[in-house]
Amino acid sequence: MEWNFQTAERLAAALRTGEVTSAELTDEAIARIERDDKVINSICVPDFDRARAAARDADQARARGEDRPLLGIPVTVKESYNMAGLPTTWGMPQCRDYVPAEDAVQVSRLKAAGAVVLGKTNVPLGLQDVQSFNEIYGTTNNPWDHSRTSGGSSGGSAAALASGFGALSIGSDLAGSLRIPAHFCGVYAHKPTLGLAASRGMVPPPAPALPTDLDLAVVGPMARTARDLALLLDVMAGPDPLTLGVAHQLTLPPARHERLCDFRVLVLDEHPLIPTGAAVRAGVNRVADALVDGGARVERHSPLLPDLAEAATLYTQFLFSSSAARFPIEGYEQLLARAAGLSADDRSLDAARLRGMALSHLDWIEANNRRELHRHGWRQFFAEFDAVVCPITPTPAFPHDHRPNLLERRIDIDGVEYPYFDQLVWAGLATMPGLPATAVPAGRSPEGLPVGVQLIAPMFHDRTSLRLAELLEQKIGGFQEPK
């Protein structure tokens, strides 16, 4: 049997019955990587010798009667996670020789669950792009069309999954970095509720791996099925054992519903600040039709929905405030002068980006107060609805664009160009208030490119969007192997 595209759930069952060994799965995965990754370039740091040793250990453990959630299953890890003995560079040339001494907490959890790590997957420079390329490791191509991006910043992980290089991967998400690559490559990803999964050791090199609380950013699972996402989230979820884990134990609430007919869903395909391309709109509508056909209550409008334009502006300010925090003082002073020159009437996202980069602490506190109002609005909204279905970006995967100045890049939406970073407003809808969101395949564009949508759920109701993703997978299908 060809094992490389089997689900983690199927592999676990086969391993338990002795139908296959971890050594066999690992050798088959490595052979496929060595054959196919020359053109995809997703596995930037192979770790095949240690993977084979871990697979042998897994087989021996199973022979002793052990059984762990991922025992013997081949997986990959985003390059930005620390792994002892392997470089962690975040694609930054000055860090090409940095090798951490300890595993990130999530790498430790993977290994404790019995996973076999095949290697690390490619990322953009500093994780700050919607594409995955850097001077150290080169460009990761989309498995469906090598002239197009696989997405970023977890683009290497998404491309690896779509190519059959391991059954699972772990990534991170600040600006859609789990959901956008999943959408572009036709796989699944889950952005957990903010703070649900510990992120220690997923830190820019050579900074120390401290248990800090991040604003906006999360770590999360990627897979080829919704059930596999849930399996991996159970391994990843939980507080850092150095801080909240000293006193807290995690118990996520169950999914609100088990049947599609019981879900109450708001479907969005329009944003006030950027149009939605025809291919993505068709994907959203395909999911909406499946929900209606399954008996779900589907609405297209609700007065309870927090203001999308203000949400996008707040998200943009928080995002760019963080990115500019380590600018040299001279550059920061220039940003302050430019921001001061903006018209008070300029409410564009370009202006929000500049204001965000020049945000004072006082202004950040005021913006955070507005964010809390949005969070309260979402609590009221989710008293009436169980989930939101909406785009992840306005388009499918776009052609590689490596112009150094990201602010000069443009995104083509049905023949009209828009600022490159404007496409992030949909990703920010869940990120700004810290809500969970699951990316699911929703069909193909006329050019044959994958199209995904995201399912946004109430805070800490991650199992609700994951269950809805599973029901939709049963209804409309899910991952397909690239042809």
Defining key terms:
two-stranded antiparallel sheet; AS_sf; 2 domains; Amidase; 14 helices; 483 residues; FAAH2; Amidase_dom; 11-stranded mixed β-sheet; Amidase signature (AS) enzymes; 17 strands
Characterization of this structure:
By secondary structure, this protein is of the alpha+beta class. It folds into two domains: 8-246, Amidase signature (AS) enzymes (Alpha-Beta Complex); 262-476, Alpha-Beta Complex (Amidase signature (AS) enzymes), CATH 3.90.1300. It is 36% helix and 16% strand. The chain contains 14 helices and 17 strands. The strands form four sheets. The chain has an eleven-stranded mixed beta sheet, with helices on both faces. Strands 4-5 form a two-stranded antiparallel sheet. It has a two-stranded antiparallel ribbon with strand order 6-7. A hairpin with a 3-residue loop joins strand 4 and strand 5. The longest helix is centred in the C-terminal third of the chain and has 21 residues, at 361-381. The radius of gyration is 21 Å and the shape is globular. This is Amidase. One of its GO terms (cellular component) is endomembrane system. It comes from Allokutzneria albata (Kibdelosporangium albatum). Residues 24-464 form the Amidase domain.
